[in-house]
Request: fold
Amino acid sequence: MNKTIKKLRISLAIAMTKLTVFGLRLLNRGGTSLPGKIALKIYPNLLSELSGKFRIIMITGTNGKTTTSRIVAGMLDQSGIKYITNKAGANLASGITTTLISALSLTGKPLVRTALLETDEAAFRTIAPKLRPETAIITNFFRDQLDRFGELYTTLNGVREGVSGTPDTTLILNADDSLCASLGQNVPNPVLYFGFAEGAYPEADESGKTDAAFCIHCSSRYTYSSTTFGHLGHFLCPSCQYTRPAAQIECTQVLAYDNLSSTIEIQMPEEKFSVKLALPGLYNIYNALAGAALGHILNLKEKELVHVLEGFECGFGRMESVMVQNRHLKLILVKNPTGFNQVLKYLLTQKDRCIVALAINDKLADGTDISWLWDVDFEILAFMQEKVGAFYVSGIRAEDMALRLKYAGIPEDGILIEHDENKLIDRLIEASGENETIYLLPTYTAMLDIRKNLKDRFKLKDFWK
Reply:
């Protein structure tokens, strides 16, 4: 392509993106993906052209991308590094293009030099080689949206292909995930592992290992000396000896754990400290460790790491807490069996009376196949029926969710269906008392709809802010 034409197309792509974002924001729309789609239509190789303008940190994996991104953002803030990020979670090529262009002047000059990009695990294969990130955090791999991602190893191999196209990228990998840890084998990349020390959180449940029960190399069944949840833990293949790699960033103890926070001990390469995480849930400890690993790369010390991890605020729809008429409403995104099971175990830590609502959609962004609901351990909700005033179900597949709860042992008269979002919120408020907690567990598009409703009614921040 002629250099002059190329420059003109890049300039046009930048201008059209900025104009489209401006127009959509005037209409109170997010403007996170459409502008990037227009830019890539004008110049399809735009991401490769933009990569040299930024120091790029990419975060991908099945669960924990958004929360880990927010923790890493705190690490960058603590380091005094200015950056751009796709905070709204638009993590496909179009959303990432919009994000990068928003950090450019009209002439294409970068306004900041660092880009923190949450990246869809299926899109990482093609985006990473174009952007050539300095660092890539890969959180974990679990079965998720079979209609979109396909078989689990398809997703893993796609990410592996992305890694192979970025040999200079520093990889931050989950040592406890046999799939994720394998990405650090036989590669030229610098690798930093994070995970739980052996026995730091003993977990007796063996049922969750079905996602990756067999060795990735020889297909023998793994043995575990300790586990956390799902297939995460200290694994060993007795046949080929593939085993969990040593982690440089480890949780060595879980000192306290409830529905508000977790207090843990973290072993860094050169220091050990205790920290009270400002977010609950066992899975969020992994997110904190991944963020601490990036903090280590940034040369942050104990005091600075603790400051970020203790002051972190939950992101958009991820343990997001909203005060609604003196009720604590917690929005917790659910999207696959392993993540949902961890949310349910988190609910068991609730000590006081609460209300639980589940909103299930089956749009493309949620996954059109909802058979995964039958792999979720809803049966454990029977242990908290005395604390739960009622179980409300909503969304396009509300009836399917109600049926699943019925088979989980929840009495039919304790399952209430409400499709209308406004009425659902009203009923949740009416059913709860002052200072009680409402847990609202939506799939992705249901979360967008409910949060927009909450924003309009209770003046919340826009999701892209």
Observations:
- The two ends are 38 Å apart (CA to CA).
